[in-house]
Structure formats: C-alpha cells, structure tokens
Amino acid sequence: MPTETPASPQVPAPTGAENTPAPGTPGAAPTEPVLSVRGLEVDYPVRGRARRGPRHVRAVAGVDLDVYEGETLGLVGESGCGKTTLGSSIMRARPEASGRIRYRAADGRVLEALDLSGDDTTTYQREVRMVFQDPQSSLNPRMTLRDIVGEPLRMLLGLRGDALEARVREVMERVGLHTSHLRRYPHAFSGGQRQRAAIARALVPGPRLVVADEAVSALDTSVRSQILNLLQDLQGDLGLTYLFVSHDLSVVEHVCDRVAVMYLGRIVEVAPTDDLFARPLHPYTEALISAVPIPDPRLRGTRERIRLTGEVPDPSRPPTGCAFHPRCRYATDLCATEVPAPREAAPGRTVACHHAEELDLAGITERTVPGTTSTNPPARATREPPTKQE
C-alpha cells in the first residue's frame, strides 16, 4: 500500500474559524468563547436498589467550562469522572442534561444547545461534531466507507450524486485514505484507518468545533502518533477548535493549549498546559501528574509518585464538602464540610480548592538528566513529521 496520497483540494474552512490563541497563552487577546457551559448537570437513574437508597447518580455536577476558538482544550480525569458524559451532553446525546450550553455559530448567532429546534438544530449538528473512542464500534459494519463518510452530507447538507461523491473523495484524501477504498466495509481496514474514516465523517460537513472523546486511546502507539499529527494538521489548515477528552496526560501535554481537570463530575482546575504541568494548584492534579510515565530511564525514580489512598467515592453517595477530601493528604476539617467554589487563583487559572494558595504542589518543572546541564523541552513543543498513511 502506498505511503503517500496525492495532493487534494482544500476542504473549505468554516466561516470565522481562525486559529485564535486561547486566553492565558502568549499573544492572546480577550475573546468570546465559541462554546460556554454553565451549571451543567447530568443525572442517571438508579434501578434495582432498595427503596430508601439513592435514586440517581449525578455524573456531571454543575460544570462551568469555556472553549475558545482555535484552541485545543484537554479534559482529563480518572475513568468514571464524567468526561465522556460531558462530551456527549455537548453533542446533545444526553436528554437528561440540565443547565446551559451556549454555542456561538459561524454566522454570529448564539445557540442554546439544550433547546434547539428547526434550522438551528441542523446548524449545530453541522458545526459541532464528535470523534468517538472506538473506531470499530462507531462505524456501521453494514455501510461502505463512502456511505459512512457521506451520510452527514445527505442528512445535514442535502447533497446527492456527484456533489456528494466529490466531497467524500476530497475529505478522504485529506485524512490520508485512498479513494479506491470507497466501496469497502469497515472490517477491511486497520484500527488507524478506521479512525481516519471516523475523523473524515466528523470533518465532512465543515465543522468548527470537534469533540474528540479518547480518540487515540484504542490505537497502537505508532498509529496513535500519526492520528495526533493528523488532528494537529487539520486544526492548523482548517482553523478547528478541539475539546480533547483523554485520561492520558502525556498525550494531553503534547497536543493541548489548556487543560481542565475533572473529578467526580466537577471541574477542579483549569489552566494553560505548561503552567498546569509546571505547578498544579489542586492536589488531585498533582497526583495525576505524578503518574505520568518518564520515558528517559535515567530520570526514573527522581520524582515522587503520589499514590492516592482509598477508592473513588460512589457518585450516588458523594462525600460532604470537597469530593476529593477523603483521598487528599492535605485535607482539613474545612474540606470535609464546605464545597470549594471555583475561583481565579492566578491569571488564566481557576481552581476549586480551599487551600490552593497555601500549598506548594509538585509538577514537572524540568527534564534534566542528573549530572548534565541540558533540559529537554516539553513534549508538546516537539512534533514528528505528519504521516498520511500507516
């Protein structure tokens, strides 16, 4: 199979999709968020329990979050913290969600995502798209690649015939797939190729915001780097905005401009990536960063590994006060009784911790080999050449 694909026409970038730096990054200017989440709550009903037991699980508990145009915002946390539920709520896949999700469309209108109707629904579905975690289960095995990628064009733009065929070919070439494979079914492709097809399906109607839900976690390491490079290339070429959901902080450090840390349904810290990894403000963030593997064997054992005690609390019976206090080594009596409200602890940084200003938490300040004077730059600053086809 050839390793390169011929040059293809550019997929038109959505109107107004400029690569604008996020607030808190160098050269950034104040701007309105393209997506604003306020007070979002999602409850799941609990069945089969005792009558006096809890009747619901609150997977997302009053989340406030802003995503700015042109940035990649990482959303991280342990499994079960509510990351995927938050992403699917933004995609309007959770009818039980309450709160506000406001989206600023390409034409300047502000759409309430949880209360859409008529043409506004079509606009939102066209401009806000999602890439799912498992490319095998997210692609219909009974549809060919042409039908999978072309379905959004039929449903959202009303394209048919030659116009649809041309657009599908154009987008497939952009994501590194060969147009000779249009008539094949998903089982005929590798995991990386299937994820390229999923990206093409998200890209084909011309979105402005893409929610990538663990988009590379199911892939092999070598293929993962190719897909990450592809996502970065597409963002640079098309001015896309990403909400990048992941549990892998090594990947988040590489690709994200800002990071939001989530624990038991709440956002506990938001900060620019470099600042968060250099000096976290929340104890939970510190514990997550301490678990990031160190690739250089000469540096292993030079950083404290924080091992949290206890289990993640039952979301149907959350602890009083700060949800993290039963596992936090800095917890006080105040933490057990009062829920910390998110506040701005530094320019561009918010944190939900009573003692954030008092703590001196450890991050990844440098990657210096003992006995040397050279310091390697953060992984996010180093890019491999893009690979179009594994």
Structure write-up:
39% of the residues are buried. The N terminus and C terminus are likely disordered. With 390 residues, this protein is an alpha/beta fold. The termini are close together. The chain is globular. Strand 7, helix 7 and strand 8 form a beta-alpha-beta unit. It contains eleven helices and twelve strands. The protein folds into two domains: 213 residues, P-loop containing nucleotide triphosphate hydrolases (Rossmann fold, 3-Layer(aba) Sandwich); 78 residues, no CATH class. Helix content is 27%, strand content 18%.
Overall geometric form? globular
Strand content: 15-25%
Distance between the termini: 9 Å
Largest beta sheet: what is the strand line-up? 6-7-8-3-9-10-12-11
Whole-number mean pLDDT = 83
| CA radius of gyration | 22 Å
Number of domains: 2
Which regions are unreliable across 5 or more consecutive residues at pLDDT < 50? 1-30, 366-390
Number of strands: 12
CATH domain class name of the largest domain: Alpha Beta
Please trace the helix and strand order, writing H or E for each element. EEEHEEHEHHHHEHEHEEHHHEE
Helix content: 25-40%
Helix/strand layout:
Elements: E1 35-45, E2 56-67, E3 72-76, H1 83-90, E4 98-104, E5 110-112, H2 119-127, E6 128-131, H3 135-138, H4 145-157, H5 161-174, H6 191-203, E7 209-213, H7 221-238, E8 241-245, H8 249-255, E9 258-263, E10 266-272, H9 273-278, H10 283-290, H11 333-337, E11 343-346, E12 349-351
Parallel strand pairs: 3-8, 3-9, 6-7, 7-8
Antiparallel strand pairs: 1-2, 1-4, 4-5, 9-10, 10-12, 11-12
Helix pairs in contact: 4-5, 4-6, 5-6, 6-7
